[in-house]
Amino acid sequence: MEIRQLREDNHRLKMEKDILKKATVSSTGLLCPGNALKYAFINQHKKTGPVAVMSRLLCVSRNTYYRCCQRQRERLPNAEHEAMIEAVKEVAQSSDKSYGSRRIKHALNALGYLHTPGL
Fold first, then answer.
1. Of 10, 30, 87, 106, which sits 20 to 30 A from 118 (CA to CA)?
2. What is the mean pLDDT of each run of 10 residues along the chain (119 residues)?
3. pTM of the predicted model, to two decimals?
């Protein structure tokens, strides 16, 4: 019985080590702050290991991970929002990325985007 328990613990620890190794080797720097990167990592590797273990190792809530996935599925593509994002990218590119949020807002207003929440 004790040997079985030790084997299970050994297997669990090897799996956790592999998960952490993948997280640190990843070029995105998952062990730094930013839950979106951690959620993306979990989503990418959820077939290789339990979500509960990965979320515990990466210090994120499993429940919050599942809510984030649900929000992404419910989010409908908004054509106007996508057009505004493209306009922001064009303004940033034309200014050599020197414009701040206020200047970008003024440029968007000049292009006809009168209401730009969040900027």
1. 30
2. 93 83 56 70 84 85 86 76 87 89 88 65
3. 0.44
Q: Tell me, what amino acid is at 14?
A: K
Residue pair 111/87 in contact (Cβ under 8 Å)? The answer is yes
Q: 98 phi and psi, to 5 degrees?
A: -100, -10
In DSSP notation, 34-87 reads -HHHHHHHHHHHTTTS-HHHHHHHTT--HHHHHHHHHHHHHPPP-HHHHHHHHH
Radius of gyration of the chain (CA): 21
**Cα dihedral sign for 50, 53, 54, 56?**
positive
